[in-house]
Every structure is written in C-alpha cells, then in structure tokens.
C-alpha cells in the first residue's frame, strides 16, 4: 500500500462515467472523505435519474457535466464546460478515465461489432478525451510530476495483462472484446501517451482496481465472486493515485500500489 495521500494539493479532478459503480464510488470518496481535492468534476452520460444528480443535490461539493464518452461531439461540449468550471489560469490536474463496458463473448460468439463497441468505450474514448482535454484545458500546475501538477489515470484490468493471463487463468475469462480492449489501454497509456505527454510534465499511469463487487464485477463473496467492495477498492486506488510520482510514469499499477507486468 502506498503512503501519503496528497489530494489536498490537487486543484481539480475529472472522473468519467460517474453514474454508478467504481466511478461513482470515486466521486463519493473524493467529495466526502479526507481526500478533499479543489474541484471534483463528475461526468455522466445520463443526468436524468443519475445517482450523481442525487449527490449533487445533497451536501456534497460536486460539479456534474454530461459526457457520453464514445461521442466526439459530447467530448467537445464537455471540455468547453470544464473550461468554464476551472479557474481562468488553471488547467485540469487529474483526469481519471474509468467509464467502461464489458461485452462478454468467447471465441464462438464474438462478433466484430461487439469488439468495436468494447474498444470504442474502453480504449478509444480515453484517448480522445485525454487528447481534447490536454489540448484545450492544458495541464495543471507546476513542479514535480504528480496529481498536484497533472496526471492521466486510465483504468485498465488485470485481464489486460498478457503475462498474467496464460495457463489456467486464460481459460477462465474468455472475454475477447473486453480483454483486447484492456490490453489496448495499457499500450495506449504506458507506451503512447506517456511518451507524448511527458514533455508537458503530465504523468500517465494505468491502474487495475481489483476484482470488485459492481454491476460489471459481479457478486461479492460467492464462489469465484468479487472479493472487494467498491469502498475497499476505491480507498486503495485513491491512495495510490494520491502518492503518484515521476517513477510511476508509464507503469501499470495494482490497486495496492505494486507494479503489474504487461
Ligand atoms: N468491477 C471490476 O471487478 C473491475 C475489474 C477490473 C477493471 N474494472 C474496470 O473499472 C472500471 C469501472 O468498472 P465498474 O465495475 O464500476 O463498471 P460498472 O459498474 O458497469 O459501471 C460502469 C460505468 O461506466 C459508465 N459508462 C459506460 N459506458 C459509458 C459511456 N459510453 N459514456 C459514459 N459513461 C459510460 C456507466 O454509465 P451508465 O450507468 O450510464 O451505463 C457506469 O456508470 C471499468 O473500466 C472496468 O473495466 C472493473
């Protein structure tokens, strides 16, 4: 587990897909716990009836913006809104690309359409959102790499690791669209964005949140069920994010902070 949590020095955070799941839990923890970043921008594709809207109307300090992550027009509109929400001379400090889908399909049933849909949400969307945000809103503060300056956290999965998914494990989760999309997120983060954003001091890292009880992760505690609650996963993930430094740039980190193999 990592040490110090430095969100108090982070001026602004944007979280994608915050309608439910880990995405919503991140927003809740940031808004209500001891993390306390400056501005929390929660994005959701569906404001009406959204859980985020409920939190917005409660005591929590949140800014909510519509973002349908696979639509370029929605990304552009969202970023215009984010520009308005941030102070004039300040960029965004932390972008958490986490909105995701899992189209479970093995070799027998997988289709091109399923694979493309999974790719668009899990891999293409983080790329396009980061590109527009970094181009228009720019990076955050100055100084050493970390969330007090500027960081992009792309949520991948252990199932995206080539090295860790061989033998017995490769036989369990035969989800072609999901697994290939999460491999792509790792490459995109660690060997593409990390190279291009480094000159601007923007730290790029991929994170595995653990196997968590959500709509996607399934039930907790049953046989082969998710061992972690959203609260357990997110507390740990936020501790890792809060302690990011230059040595983490371009890596793939577990929710506990250890480096994972690609
Ligand atoms: N849960 C796990 O065990 C686990 C393990 C490893 C990695 N992960 C990764 O962690 C992330 C969060 O997973 P989760 O378990 O929280 O999933 P989840 O419970 O299914 O929630 C997914 C969230 O993403 C949003 N979303 C999906 N497509 C979107 C789109 N096109 N535009 C905007 N929002 C969209 C959903 O919004 P709507 O409500 O509008 O659909 C929802 O709020 C994913 O990237 C997942 O791959 C999860």
UniProtKB/TrEMBL annotation:
Question: Which Pfam families has this protein been placed in?
Answer: adh_short (PF00106)
Q: Which GO terms describe its molecular function?
A: oxidoreductase activity
Q: Which Gene Ontology CC terms are recorded? A: cytoplasm
SUPFAM superfamilies given in the database record: NAD(P)-binding Rossmann-fold domains
Q: Which PANTHER family match?
A: SHORT-CHAIN DEHYDROGENASE/REDUCTASE, SI:DKEY-12E7.4
Q: Tell me the protein's name.
A: Si:dkey-12e7.4
Q: Which organism is it from?
A: Kryptolebias marmoratus
Taxonomic placement: Eukaryota, Metazoa, Chordata, Craniata, Vertebrata
């Amino acid at each position: 587990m990592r040490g110090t949590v430095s969100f108090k020095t982070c001026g602004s955070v944007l979280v994608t897909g915050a309608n439910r799941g880990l995405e919503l839990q991140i927003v809740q923890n940031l808004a209500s716990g001891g993390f306390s970043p400056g501005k929390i921008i929660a994005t959701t594709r569906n404001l009406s009836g959204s859980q985020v809207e409920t939190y917005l109307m409660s005591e929590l300090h949140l800014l909510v913006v519509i973002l349908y992550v696979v639509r370029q027009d929605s990304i552009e509109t969202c970023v215009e809104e984010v520009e308005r929400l941030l102070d004039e001379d300040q960029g965004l400090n932390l972008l958490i690309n986490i909105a995701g889908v899992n189209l479970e399909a093995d070799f027998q049933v997988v289709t091109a359409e399923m694979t493309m849909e999974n790719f668009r949400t899990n891999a293409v969307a983080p790329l396009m959102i980061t590109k527009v945000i970094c181009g228009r809103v720019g990076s955050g503060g100055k100084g050493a790499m970390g969330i007090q300056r500027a960081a992009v956290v792309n949520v991948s999965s252990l199932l995206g690791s080539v090295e860790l998914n061989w033998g017995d494990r490769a036989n369990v989760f035969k989800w072609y669209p999901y697994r290939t999309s999460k491999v792509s997120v790792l490459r995109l983060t660690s060997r593409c964005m990390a190279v291009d954003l480094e000159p601007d001091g923007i730290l790029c890292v991929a994170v595995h949140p653990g196997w968590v009880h959500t709509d996607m992760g399934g039930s907790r505690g049953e046989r082969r069920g998710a061992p972690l609650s959203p609260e357990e996963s997110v507390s740990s993930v936020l501790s890792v994010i809060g302690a990011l430094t230059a040595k983490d740039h371009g890596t793939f980190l577990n929710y506990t902070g250890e480096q994972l193999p690609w």
